[in-house]
Amino acid sequence: MPEIDDIRAVAPALEKYRQGILLGDLWRRPGLSPRDRSLVTLAALIARNQTVELASYLNRALDNDVTPAEISEIIIHLAFYTGWANAMSAVAITRDVFATRGIGADQIPAASGPQLALDEAAEAQRATRVAEQSGNVAPGLVQYTADVLFRDLWLRPGLTPRDRSLVTVSALVATGQVAQITYHLNRAMDNGLTKAEAGEMITQLAFYAGWPNAFSALPVVKDVVEKRPR
Q1: Chain centroid offset of residue 83 CA
Q2: Phi and psi, residue 156, nearest 5°
Q3: What's the farthest any 2 CA atoms get from each other in the chain?
Q4: Entry pTM
Q5: Contacts made by residues 160-166, CB under 8 angstroms, sequence distance 24+
Q6: What pLDDT, in 10s, does the model give residues 77-133?
Q7: 230 has a pLDDT exceeding 80
Q8: Cβ–Cβ under 8 Å, residues 122 and 155
């Protein structure tokens, strides 16, 4: 991450906005906890493969009570939702942060183990919808979506379903994947994300993924929120 003097040497107004707005205001807004803001921000940085500031925000996340196990699970999760190479880039930086802070293998989740319970009815509905959308075009994709994503990855206990959903929606917004937001935001809210938190997630992402991505997602988020029960 560039030092303050480096930023000032190139763009002093950028440092002013960083200190006054980004760190001085955005991160202190009450609608989303500092821990959740860290989850959203890490998801955006990893999804966009923006590694320059990743070490700094990994340290901030740890200071904000995101556990090493949860960071590990975020990287695993985003390998599927933003691509393997992005996850590998994040692994290299995270390894150094963990080493510096004395975080060892005992704090990292195992490759496999007991899983969360599967909601069979919800999974059956999801699987039916995916099958109808894909037809016979990509049967392998349909199979991996069911067997690997929703019957394995989403059932890993290292992240709560609510936090896993928050990371997923944040990554979708950050990468402009608007078509996927409706399903996953509804899932996030089923998993406990509130309407106010959804709004603050978009606000946080405007700074870390850019205003165009935030405003492209906003109508979809608005539609989901307005259709949800009060």
Answers
A1: 13
A2: -70, 135
A3: 58
A4: 0.95
A5: 160/191, 161/116, 161/191, 161/192, 162/188, 162/191, 162/192, 162/193, 163/39, 163/70, 164/73, 164/77, 164/191, 165/191, 165/193, 166/36, 166/39, 166/40, 166/43, 166/193, 166/197, 166/201
A6: 999 999 999 999 999 999 999 999 999 999 999 999 999 999 999 999 999 988 888
A7: no
A8: no
